[in-house]
Amino acid sequence: MKKTIMLSFLFFSALHLFSADNYPQLVNVMNRESFSLNGSWKTIVDPFEVGYYDYRSQPKKNGYFKDIDYSTDRSFLLEYNFAADKTLYVPGDWNTQRPQLFYYEGTVWYRKHFEYTPKADNRVFLYFGAVNYEAIVYLNGEKLGTHVGGFTPFNFEVTDKLKSGKNSLVVKVDNKRKPEAVPTVNADWWNFGGITRDVRLVETPKTFIRDYFIQLNKNNPNEISGWIQLDGSTKSETVKLDIPELKITKTFNTNADGYVQISVPIKKNTTRWTPENPKLYTINLVHNNNSLSDKIGFRTISTQGTDILLNGKKIYCRGVCIHEETVGNSSRATNEADATILLSLAKEMGCNFVRLAHYPHNENMIRLAERMGLMVWSEIPVYWTIQWENPETYANAEAQLKDMITRDKNRANVVIWSIANETPHSDARLTFLTNLAKTAREMDNTRLIAAAMEKEEKRPGVMTVNDELSQVIDLVSFNQYVGWYNGTWAKCDSVNWEFDIKKPVFISEFGGGALYGNYGARDQFFTEEYQEELFIRSVAMLKRIPGLAGTTPWLLKDFRSPRRTLSEIQDGFNRKGLVSEKGEKKKAFFIMQKWYNELKGQ
Ligand code: GCU
Fold first, then answer.
1. In this predicted model, what pLDDT tens digit does every residue of 259-317 receive, in sequence order?
2. What is the domain count for the chain?
């Protein structure tokens, strides 16, 4: 009994750690009144965290976050300053901006000065698209709060904390890997540190539309349903939903908490969002003559036996996995231009789907994919050997899941929330993931829940998935590397697959490596010919899989990884890309393109 009480105490105190500091997430920031704090920030690299702890490892009262200006007062000892010649660009990772920081894992202090003129009837929020991995944020020397998790947005209300005139914003960014973190210390991607996404000051009316969920009702094709959440009022308010193209205007009255469930009849022939016709409708949410607009697509996603159904019709997900890394510089991708290059390559391959591995990508990627007609598998970095029995680790994973769903729940193209990748079987892991799946479904029961499980041999020559998690999620989704980590490409010819559970089969990773331009024998690892033959044999094997509903080969583009040290071949890159880090298409790219074009034609 005692242990249970202790564990539950730990659990709830951990939840506090990941929720109290930040204000509830503002959604659709890019369509709100705001101004950008992107650009050049002054920085201090602080591997011993001198700017935070004193020599007795106690937090300092006058750390770097006080941002004292040494040039104005030299009457006392000051051993730091934010110098003009030590800047980093925001958004962006530090690793690829400064050679000395390429492998750096530790603290970097970022500082931005900005002018602000408070407006009487506004509220103001400081919004971060993401910071990897832990951020402690200070405004004018006062701590606003902490955020943990490298790929999800967070914001603080600063209405009463901003000064008229010059303001000092200081952020302590720490990308050290930790066993209890999410992801934990071992991952197969570069630990890009920094303020890696947009920073904005968002201005809202005193009472404003903070959040909303507007979807086609999954059980009634003639209805749009969801809810709207106001912020700032303690009484019932009137809020209007306006969809001009559908000639819909309807008002609703919120409860005293600012919340109202909505449902609006629509014509049965309202255009559905599909990859072939990614139709988006402008919606306007209006309160007190303040309007917040968004573009929403209407579709349903479901499964029936081994089929995935989009708008009630069977669809095959012709996908590819993508890391959030730029073509060319191989740095953390941040903006729409980066997304355009990556997603255009996926479209050129014949994709209607992308698995955005292994963490929530930036919002530009999701919204551009929506406009381009690419369905999305979005995932939290519950990756490999997470600390399944640590309540803080669970609270962290759950907070990242909630933040991912909060941000992207109105994106029609997001069809799958994924809660894990290649996680080792145990009772603790099953409980951890079952709880995450439950949380995801409570927040959003309109999408599929998946995870990348692993295969095993059922009997010689026959592979299957034998994972209790497959009872919990909606797909038999798993990674397999027959012909790379498991035999050579010839093995594909003799392997068959059997599944005891009748759900759509989704191969969330397969493939192998090749150095672009490394031509040679077809049986030699890392030649383009080997990779090409591997994909030829893999496709032939995949075609034999009963109930196959989707494939996302690993992966679109070679990417940086500290695990890949084979000199002259890998040189710090995972070479399983179908294109090189410069975007050059390998022979295998055209094998996938040929198969997907055949599937398109079917
Ligand atoms: C795993 C893992 C990927 C990794 C890949 C590889 O399946 O999910 O993140 O990069 O294998 O070994 O290349």
1. 999 999 999 889 999 999 999 999 999 999 899 999 999 999 999 999 999 999 999 99
2. 3
Please count the other Cβ atoms lying within 10 Å of the Cβ belonging to residue 298: 22
pLDDT digits (tens, 9 = 90+) for 566-586: 999 999 999 999 999 999 999
Nearest CA to ligand 1 atom 3: 188
Q: Residue 260 and residue 429: Cα distance in Å, rounded?
A: 36
Query: What CATH number is given to the structural domain containing 456?
Result: 3.20.20.80
Q: Same domain for 199 and 286?
A: no
- Mean of pLDDT over the chain: 95
Site to probe by mutation for ligand 1, drawn from 323, 325, 422, 564 as the one with most ligand atoms within 8 Å of Cβ, is: 422
- Rounded to 5°, the CA angle 392-395-399 comes to 140
Q: How far is the CA of 188 from the centre of ligand 1 (A)?
A: 6
- Report residue 573 as tokens: 């890159």
Q: Are residues 256 and 362 in the same domain?
A: no
Residues 6+ apart with CB under 8 A from 108: 43, 44, 45, 46, 88, 94, 101, 173, 193, 194
Q: What is the CA(245)–ligand 1 centre distance, in A?
A: 44
Measured CA to CA in angstroms, residue 99 lies from 47, 94, 103, 223, 447 at distances of 16, 9, 9, 55, 42
Domain C-terminal end among 205, 225, 247: 205
Closest by Cα among 248, 223, 194, 35 to 125: 35
CA distances, 374 to each of 218, 274, 365 (Å) = 20, 9, 10
Quick one: DSSP state of residue 188?
S
Are 212 and 252 contacting, i.e. CB atoms less than 8 angstroms apart? Answer: no
Kindly state whether residues 430 and 531 are assigned to the same domain: yes
Q: What is the mean pLDDT of residues 169-192?
A: 98
Furthest CA-CA distance within the chain: 79
Asked if residue 535 belongs to a domain, the reply is yes
Give DSSP secondary structure letters for 20-42.
SSSBPPPS-GGGSSEEE--EEEE
Q: Which residues line ligand 1 (CB under 6 A)?
A: 188, 358, 421-422, 479, 509, 554, 574, 576
Select from 110, 65, 64 the least CA-distant residue to 87.
110
Q: Is residue 3 part of a domain?
A: no
Q: Which atom of ligand 1 is found nearest the CA of 574?
A: 13
Q: Per residue in 435-474, is it b (16+ CB within 10 Å) or e — as a string? A: ebbebbeebbebbbbbbbbbbeebeeeebbbbbebbebbb
Q: Taking a C-beta distance cutoff of 8 angstroms, is the pair 151, 183 a contact?
A: no
Query: Ligand 1 atom closest to Cα of 383?
Result: 8
- Structural domain boundaries, residue 64: 32-205
pTM, 2 dp: 0.96
